[in-house]
Specification:
Pfam families: DUF4303
Low-confidence stretches: none
Number of domains: 1
Helix content: 40-55%
Shape: globular
Largest sheet: 3 strands, mixed
Strand order of the largest sheet: 2-1-3
Protein name: DUF4303 domain-containing protein
Structural class: alpha+beta
Strand content: 5-15%
Number of strands: 3
Number of helices: 7
Length: 175
């Protein structure tokens, strides 16, 4: 692994792991854990949903409303949780300026950043972070691009076993 990629992977993994470990201290049962970025691959933020948080939405509004936002990073009460842990990640991303004048370089940089995010999620997944409050097989883990596109599905299948994310694939996957 090239040293620039390793540095970025390690820093994203550190920030992501710290954020999720802090979040999981609430002992809720999580089904959705994502690292979210934009189509321009800006520095990511985490988003998560627990069954308890979704139940609160259903109680406050309705079951139908809860079903509509079940997979929504932005509607999660845990959107951008631990954002303070990503300061160094934001600095590293800002140092890697995108060259918007050269389309090929621009797309290559976006791919580089997304790969760093995926490798970081794989790294913390190997530490069984996503299995702390629930079985790992019950948690959808991904690096999501917003607005969503078909690459989210590709990454979801890389980071999860297909049979474990059928609910997400049926409800939210982009074709």
């Amino acid at each position: 692994m090239d040293k620039d990629l390793k540095l970025l992977v390690d820093e994203i993994a550190r920030a992501t792991e710290k954020s999720f470990l802090n979040l999981f201290q609430n002992k809720e049962i999580y089904y959705y854990c994502a690292l979210v970025t934009t189509g321009e691959a800006v520095a990511p933020a985490i988003s998560a949903w627990s069954w308890e948080a979704l139940e609160n939405v259903a109680k406050k509004y309705s079951k139908e409303d809860a079903d509509l936002i079940k997979w929504s990073y932005a509607d999660s009460p845990y959107w951008n949780f631990g954002c303070e842990n990503f300061e160094t990640v934001r600095k590293l991303f800002n140092e890697r300026l995108l060259d918007y004048t050269d389309e090929m370089k621009w797309f290559k940089e976006i791919d580089f950043r997304l790969e760093a995010m995926v490798l970081a999620m794989e790294k913390i997944d190997k530490k069984e972070i996503f299995a702390l409050n629930q079985p790992r097989s019950k948690v959808y883990v991904n690096v999501e691009v917003m607005p969503p596109d078909e690459t989210n599905t590709i990454r979801a299948l890389r980071l999860n076993k297909r049979e474990n994310i059928l609910d997400w694939l049926n409800a939210a996957a982009e074709e």
